[in-house]
Amino acid sequence: xxxxxxxxxxxxxxxxxxxxxxxxxxxxxxxxxxxxxxxxxxxxxxxxxxxxxxxxxxxxxxxxxxxxxxxxxxxxxxxxxxxxxxxxxxxxxxxxxxxxxxxxxxxxxxxxxxxxxxxxxxxxxxxxxxxxxxxxxxxxxxxxxxxxxxxxxxxxxxxxxxxxxxxxxxxxxxxxxxxxxxxxxxxxxxxxxxxxxxxxxxxxxxxxxxxxxxxxxxxxxxxxxxxxxxxxxxxxxxxxxxxxxxxxxxxxxxxxxxxxxxxx
Length: 264
Description:
The chain is 57% helix and 11% strand. By secondary structure, it is of the alpha+beta class. The chain has two domains: 1-15 and 23-104; 118-245, CATH 3.30.1330.60. Strand 3, helix 6 (187-204) and strand 4 form a beta-alpha-beta unit. The longest helix is centred in the first third of the chain and has 45 residues, at 24-68. It is elongated and about 85 Å long. The N and C termini lie far apart (59 Å). The mean pLDDT is 82.
C-alpha cells in the first residue's frame, strides 16, 4: 500500500508538470526528470523489498528455533546480528523516503523557473543537480553576471537557503572550444571564475557561506556530446549540486584495516 501511495504521488507530481504544455523542450526535461526519479523510486522499492525479506527471515528463524526447542541464549550473537541488520535496513528505508520527499519539494519550488526555461533539474548519480545555462547568467567568454541572471539566482538562493542540513557545490562547465583572452588563458580559468561568481552571489543572496563550495571543470564533464553548436551551448553551464549528507554516504569503516601501515 505504501508503494502504491508513493508511486501515485510521483504520478500527481509529473501530471502537474506536464499540464502546463510549455513546449517540446520542457516536456523532454520533464520526461528526463521523471525517468531519473523513477530510478530513485526503484532504489526505494528495492530497499523496501530487502526490509520485508529481513523481517520475514527473522520471523521464520524464530519460529524454527521455537519448534526445535533451541534456547535463544545459545544463539544470542546470531540473533543480535540479524536484529542489527534489520534495524539498519529500516533506517536506510526511512532515509530513502525522507530524501525522496525532500527532492519532490525542491522540484515543486523550482517548477516556475523550469517552465520558463531558466533552469532544469536532473538526478545524476543519485544527486540532485540544478543546471543553469550560460545564456541566462553570462555573456560569452565572460564571468560577470547579467542582470537577468542575477534575478534568476536570487530565486534559486531563496530555495537553497530553505533546504536544511545540505551543502551545495557550484560547478562551472564549458564546451570543448579552447578560449584564450586577456583575462582567461583557458576554459579552466573561465569555468572556475564563473563558479566562484555564482557562489559569491548566492552567499550575498542569503545562502550560508559555510554551505557553499565552488569548482571549475572546463570541458571535462559534458552533459551531451560537443558535436553541434546546440550541444556545445548546453555544455556551457553552471551546475548546483545538492550534496548528500554524511549519513547517506557508504560506510567505509571496513577499509580501516587496509589503510594500516604494515609492520617492517
